[in-house]
């Protein structure tokens, strides 16, 4: 004797399978830079200043946001630098990028591609003002 499945039974099985599939959390693939981490900078006074070195996790842009300048028409030129800690080599890898107050840029660089594990920014105060700037930067940008 052959047993037949009822339509109601098939619907319950289909509903349960659908519920199980929908309850599985799907984690999308993302680059390690899916969320910016901003670090503060504070340049003041004379010519060359540098940010702290931060781990460079991927081949993304370096982000910089000059939020404040003591003199609105003053500016600095920024250069992206990398450091290979295995060989203790520091190298310039991007720039110059000119920053005035409220300038926000993603800076092309090749720190990661050149085996640099840390990135930082060197800023050269080239404007005519007092040279005081504050803002945010990140070694990895979206």
What do you see in this structure?
With 142 residues, the protein is mainly β. It contains one helix and nine strands, in the order H-E-E-E-E-E-E-E-E-E. It has one domain: Jelly Rolls, CATH 2.60.120. About 11% of the residues have low confidence. It is elongated, with a radius of gyration of 26 Å. It starts with 6 loop residues before the first helix and ends with a strand. A hairpin with a 4-residue loop joins strand 5 and strand 6. 12% of the residues lie in helices and 40% in strands. The longest helix is centred in the first third of the chain and has 17 residues. Strands 2, 3, 5, 6 and 8 form a five-stranded antiparallel sheet that branches. A four-stranded antiparallel sheet has the order 1-9-4-7, with no helix packed on it.
N-to-C order of helices and strands = HEEEEEEEEE
Number of domains: 1
Low-confidence runs of at least 5 consecutive residues: 22-36
Tally the helices: 1
- Overall mean pLDDT: 82
State the CATH topology. Answer: Jelly Rolls
CATH class group: Mainly Beta
Compact overview of the structure:
With 142 residues, the chain is mainly beta. It has 1 helix and 9 strands. A hairpin with a 4-residue loop joins strand 5 (76-84) and strand 6.
Notable characteristics:
142 residues, four-stranded antiparallel β-sheet, mainly beta, 40% strand, Jelly Rolls, elongated, five-stranded antiparallel β-sheet
SSE blueprint:
Blueprint: H1 7-23, E1 39-43, E2 48-50, E3 54-55, E4 62-69, E5 76-84, E6 89-99, E7 103-107, E8 118-125, E9 133-138
Antiparallel strand pairs: 1-9, 2-8, 3-8, 4-7, 4-9, 5-6, 5-8
């Amino acid at each position: 004797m052959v047993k037949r499945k009822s339509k109601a039974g098939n619907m319950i099985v289909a509903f349960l399978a659908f519920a199980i599939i929908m309850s599985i959390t799907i984690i999308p693939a993302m680059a390690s830079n899916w969320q910016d981490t901003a670090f503060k900078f504070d340049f003041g006074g004379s010519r060359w200043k540098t940010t702290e070195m931060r781990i460079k996790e991927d081949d993304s842009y370096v982000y910089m946001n000059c939020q404040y300048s003591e003199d609105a028409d003053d500016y600095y030129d920024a250069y992206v630098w990398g450091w290979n800690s295995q060989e203790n080599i520091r190298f310039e890898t991007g720039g110059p990028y000119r920053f005035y107050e409220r300038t926000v840029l993603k800076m092309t660089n090749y720190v990661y591609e050149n085996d640099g594990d840390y990135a930082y920014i060197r800023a050269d105060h080239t404007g005519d003002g007092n040279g005081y700037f504050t803002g945010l930067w990140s070694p990895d940008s979206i």
